[in-house]
Amino acid sequence: MIFRYLATGCNFSALAFYFARGNNTVSKIVADTTRNIWECLKDLYMPVPTAEKWKTIADRFQDLWNLPNCAIDGKHIRIQKIPKSGSSNFNYKSYHSLVLMASCDADGIFTTIDVGQAGRNSDGGVFRACRLGRWLDINGLDIPTGIKLPHDQGDIQMFPYYFVADEAFPLKSYLMRPYPRRVLDNKKRIFNYRLSRGRKTIECAFGMMASKFKVLSTPILCVNEETISSIIRCMCVLHNFIRIREGRAYQPQYHKETEMNMNIGMNLELENENNNLPTRNSASGLRDYLSNYFIQPQSALPWQWNYCTS
After folding, report:
1. Which of 144, 195, 254, 306 has the fewest CB atoms lying closer than 10 Å?
2. What is the pLDDT of residue 310?
3. Which compartments does it reside in (predicted)?
């Protein structure tokens, strides 16, 4: 019954009619079943990442998207108005929602999720209030301290691991966001493009989950907030289950031998910019360092090399 509900998006009344049960009974069955699925599968298909797992995720991002990182974003889950909730869940898109704050690896598999923040809050506000944001502030996720960027010839020997987010999130040493559009030059545009290559994985993960579970195509017709949160957590862990058991892994967009031939001559003006790389450990300094790193010949994308050397 629960899989019929998640896959088709039918409401509790339709399930109650189909199974000849009352709405309250069906609601309780859905709540208990989704909670049990989450408890049974979360340790297998969404465990808390270890330091070695974070390194594996970063390496996979580098292989696929030429960017060592982990993507993060928020998704508004449309819901029916909860009684006596006022406008707390009414978002800027003009419907009631709860926010799913999630991060994923390079293959669109969720690594962390946080469910239940009110829809009226922005992604940045939800990030600061959710457990992921608080853990990152106190370095409580066992994330390694840093690593030398591939082919890096700059001054910073150990660049911190970081998440990638959109403009709605704050800029932190562990959270990289794009440059504002009003101050863009070519170097900053390249940086924004490289970040978008990594950040699209979380958007794809949300899209794949929505295509599997049609219940996300319409408002979740439930008035119990805890039940809604259980349904969302259940869908996330089932998404991981399907991706790991039956999904098709992404393939790198270029061959390794292409990368081995990347350190040949290019524009000398770009190489000379490396002499003025910022070395301070502030978030803006690290972003500027990364933007300079991306335009260096040894770290440019393969198609950029082919274009510049042709």
Report:
1. 306
2. 37
3. Nucleus
